[in-house]
Design brief:
743 residues; alpha/beta; six-stranded parallel β-sheet; 21 strands; globular; binds cytidine-5'-diphosphate; binds magnesium ion
């Protein structure tokens, strides 16, 4: 709990103050009654006190009582000052001037679109105004504010708890997947990811516990936000008392207004200083190098203060940039002023995220290396220079092949304009675009493509069907996905057994929705507990599924370390899935020890998160009755049936569409109607190493969890399938048609 430390101090300050007051009131400074002192049978004798002498007056021990008082008074002053500064800062934000007219507009209209420059106070202030104005009716109702990003939800909640001077998790909390920091009885303001609010429709279809819902960062147009807006549009007529506020950066506002029958748009005029835009004269082949060079150019030629914000596409790039910055800064040593490097990306551990908000010390320059998280979701004070290579990592899905990829693509013009704006918040700024002016005008799209048009819709379609939406084509959406994308989603969930042949959702389908993870994983767990050929391996399946949620930060970084660690822990495992299982189990067997992690180059904090995810998944399995079924099965299981085989079969049941077959020219995906796509084993996979080392015969079938496209199409997290007949055994309806037809 990030706040607990501070509150401890506050509590102590308060207690100390009480003590001080009591002492002053009694006027008997030398007779403080200490509770429990009557138990001591000796009296403190002043004569017997040890005396210290010091040659140097200053280093003498201070007179405890008065020294203590002074320190205490100072601490109190500082705390008071801090709270005062926070309140002053709140009042200085652009939305503050519009507080009363905003509240008036909200009272008058059921739906209000609020548009304002990033940093004007929409996310942190609006919800507080609603609380202050009594919209929660003394805590009877809650206020929800959705965020597309986990990092934004947690960091904003912490900030607002601080501003309201309450403990995070009590009155103000956050809820993100696998991490719920709210208390049902006391929380009145909740920041949560849009995906979490979407899930709440399953238990509370009219969201009755909320008085106001703020859909924040709506311009991001994530899949969950779009679907939420559709569902909310549906319930508004039944919940006349519910207030809906859609908050957005300057793009897209009119579209939201149209969608909600001409809802009014409230503009919060922002202050924005002019930003000089610079372009490169030629396209840069290596934008990362160019960005690093630009950082030093700025640092050595531009005055202080003035922090730099660099937009990169992901963790790997950020780490690479950080490393080369540190190396160069090290070489330059005292020739340059100190650089403080602060990375921020979704997977950055929470305790390291606050570094970006810490004020930059005098004579230093902060360089924030961020993903597009800093485009609108987070406002970092003090930024004067923006470096923008103009790329973003984006999910892209091709329904015809069923392939989903994270691709690095050029951003839209709206995005790069937003990014440039980050430089003009404190004063006039500069933005260095690492692409050409020509490219800006001729190559960039105007607006980013909404996620709903470029992603796999299976999960959302299943959720909507479980909520009773039967006519998907009729469901209100800002942008409607095409028929191929919808039919592919239906086909996928049918393959998983979530729909029957009439197209209605099955019990299994409902169960899959209950899991806080993709339906495919839900299917794996269901199979692991119940299928005749698999049951009894639920414990192991849950562990692997939990591990697969955190693979990005599991092993300590460097590649050689990674290899070493694998051979170190386990020797020989046959798949990445078994590697994850063995890693977790070895850790568990060592009592979840931290030193085991250090010895084996595994990230302790990641494993702690995995353990937490695992517990939650296990509880979910328990509620659904799967644990009981699994235990029954475990009693009668045939011990010759190796657990590993049962695990593999469980994964086949959940991911039949993620299987590649070995052909004459390597692996090809299966299941796609118009022939497979060439795919290779990713070098980080255990399979890759065992193939290289043993020259072993490559397995004929490989199940993969993800495809990533870099120099070519790579399979990550691979599980070999030793026997072809397992495919027919586990998913006959799929492989008897699509699979064998094709092959
Ligand atoms: O949502 P919007 O972009 O309109 O602004 P906001 O996120 O509410 O930010 C208002 C102010 O709070 C900005 O000056 C931020 O820098 C500050 N803030 C902060 O200092 N620390 C945070 N964790 C979040 C916001
Ligand atoms: Mg915001």
């Amino acid at each position: 709990a990030p706040r607990s430390g501070k509150n401890h101090i506050q509590q102590r300050l308060w207690e100390d103050q009480q003590l001080k007051n009591a002492v002053q009131a009694s006027g008997q400074t030398d007779e403080i009654h200490v509770e429990g002192s009557e138990n001591y049978d000796f009296v403190f004798d002043e004569e017997a006190m040890v005396e210290f002498t010091a040659e140097d007056e200053d280093s003498a021990l201070p007179d405890t009582q008065s020294g203590y008082d002074e320190k205490l008074a100072k601490e109190l002053d500082r705390e008071h000052e801090r709270l005062q500064t926070i309140q002053d800062t709140r009042k200085s934000l652009p939305v503050y001037k519009f507080r009363s007219s905003l509240i008036e507009a909200i009272r008058e209209h059921q739906v209000l679109i609020v548009v304002g420059e990033t940093g004007s106070g929409k996310t942190t202030q609006l919800p507080q105004y609603l609380v202050e104005e009594g919209f929660t009716q003394d805590g009877k109702f809650q206020i929800a504010c959705t965020q597309p990003r986990r990092v934004a939800a947690t960091s904003v909640a912490a900030r607002v708890a601080d501003e309201m001077n309450v403990i995070l998790g009590r009155e103000v909390g956050y809820s993100i997947r696998f991490d719920d920091k709210t208390t049902p009885d006391t929380t009145i303001l909740k920041y949560l990811t849009d995906g979490m609010l979407l899930r709440e429709f399953m238990t509370d279809p009219e969201l009755n516990k909320y008085a106001c819902i703020i859909i924040d960062e709506a311009h991001e147009r994530t899949l969950s936000t779009d679907v939420l807006l559709g569902l909310l549009k549906d319930i508004l007529p039944h919940r006349k008392d519910l207030k809906l506020i859609i908050s957005s950066a300057t793009m897209n506002a009119a579209k939201f207004a149209d969608f909600f029958y001409n809802a009014p748009i409230f503009n919060v005029p922002g202050r924005r200083f002019p930003v000089d835009i610079h372009y490169t004269l030629q396209p840069e082949a290596n934008y990362l190098n160019a960005a690093v060079t630009t950082i030093f150019q700025i640092h050595t030629t531009q005055p202080l203060p003035g922090d730099i914000l660099v937009f990169l596409t992901g963790q790997e790039e950020i780490e690479a940039a950080q490393q080369s910055l540190e190396e160069i800064a090290h070489v330059l040593g005292s020739k340059i002023k100190p650089l403080i490097i602060a990375p921020i990306y979704a997977n950055l551990p929470q305790d390291q995220q606050s570094k970006i908000f810490e004020p930059t010390p005098k004579n230093c320059r902060k360089v924030v290396l961020a993903t597009n998280i800093a485009e609108t979701s987070l406002t970092i004070n003090g930024i004067k220079y923006v470096i923008d290579p103009g790329f973003v990592k984006e999910n892209s899905y091709v329904p015809s092949t069923g392939m989903s990829q994270l691709l690095t693509v050029p951003c839209s013009r709206a995005s790069v304009d937003q990014r440039a704006g980050r430089a003009g918040r404190v004063g006039p700024g500069k933005c260095f675009r690492i692409f050409t002016k020509w490219s800006y005008f001729h190559e960039l799209e105007l607006l980013p493509k909404p996620e709903i048009l470029r992603t796999n819709l299976s999960q959302v379609v299943l959720l909507l069907m479980s909520l009773g939406v039967t006519d998907l084509l009729d469901f209100p959406l800002l942008d409607k996905p095409g028929i191929p994308a919808l039919s592919k989603a239906l086909e996928n969930i049918y393959t998983l057994g979530a729909l029957n042949s009439k197209g209605a959702i099955t019990r299994l389908g409902r169960m899959m929705c209950e899991f806080p993870c993709e339906p495919e994983f839900g299917k794996v767990l269901h199979t692991a507990a119940t299928h005749d050929a698999c049951k009894g391996c639920l414990e192991e399946a849950v562990t692997i599924v939990a591990m697969l949620h955190e693979t990005a930060s599991l092993f300590v970084h460097s590649k050689s370390d990674r290899d070493q660690n694998k051979s170190g822990i386990i020797g020989k495992v046959s798949s990445d899935h078994m590697l994850y299982l063995e890693t977790y189990n070895s850790w568990r067997d060592m009592n979840y020890s931290r030193s085991w992690c250090i010895d084996h180059k595994v990230q302790y904090k990641t494993l702690l998160r995995v353990r937490n995810i695992r517990d939650q998944l296990w509880r979910c399995c328990d509620t659904l009755g799967l644990v009981a079924l699994n235990e029954q099965a475990a009693k009668v299981i045939n011990s010759s049936d190796r657990i590993e085989h049962r695990i593999i079969k469980s994964f086949i049941s959940g991911f039949p569409t993620n299987i590649a077959k070995l052909g004459t020219s390597g692996y090809q995906t299966m299941g796609a109607r118009q022939g497979g796509v060439n795919v290779s084993v990713h070098p980080t996979s255990t399979i890759f190493q065992s193939l290289r080392k043993d020259m072993a015969k490559p397995p004929k079938y490989l199940l993969y969890q993800r495809l990533v496209l870099t120099s070519k199409e790579f399979m990550r997290d691979c599980l070999p399938i030793p026997r072809e007949d397992w495919l027919h055994e586990i998913v006959p309806h799929y492989f008897s048609s699509a699979g064998s037809q094709k092959n």
